[in-house]
Design brief:
By secondary structure, the chain is α/β, with parallel strands linked by helices. The chain has a single domain, classed as Glucose Oxidase, domain 1 (3-Layer(bba) Sandwich), CATH 3.50.30. Helix content is 15%, strand content 31%. The chain has two helices and ten strands; from the N terminus they run ββββββαβαβββ. It has an eight-stranded mixed sheet with strand order 1-10-9-3-5-7-8-2. Strands 4-6 form a two-stranded parallel sheet. The protein is globular, with a radius of gyration of 13 Å.
Length: 136
Amino acid sequence: MADTRIQGRAIFEGTATGRVLKSEVPVGFFGHLDPETGIYKEQGHPLDGASIKGRVLVFPRGKGSTVGSYILYGLKKAGNAPAAMIMTECDTIVAVGALIGEIPTVDGVALSALENEQWVRVEGGELVVEGSEPRA
């Protein structure tokens, strides 16, 4: 089966591979993500209780405080950041967090293009969907 390639816009260029962790609703970083654990905590949110560490975090956009940028940086420093972030529309809070945390980030991607647990490789602004597991 051939890889599916999806073009987006690179917010922070980089290369990363990981399994998709997808939310159909916006993600808040300040007050919901613990940099020391990488666990998302927001009652009623689809990601409540999930670890974002090493995952390709897929969500429509960020929400909340400007401190969210620093939370992304803190996640990276603690080794608990997502491998990459993919969004429909990147806001300035997430963009700054991606830049200071050096987290490969792409926007302009329809959420329907990706499913939970798929393996995705991010290469600049291009996504390569590899299916259920990455190739060596």
